[in-house]
Amino acid sequence: MTYMSQEGYDKLIAELQHLESVERPKASAAIAEARDKGDLSENSEYDAAKEAQGHLEDKINRLKLAISEAKIVDVSRLSTDAVQILSKVEMTNMVNKAKMSYTIVSENEANLREGKISIKTPIAQGLLNKRVGDIVEIQIPRGTIKLRIDKISI
Question: Does the predicted model carry a pTM greater than 0.90?
Answer without folding.
Answer: no
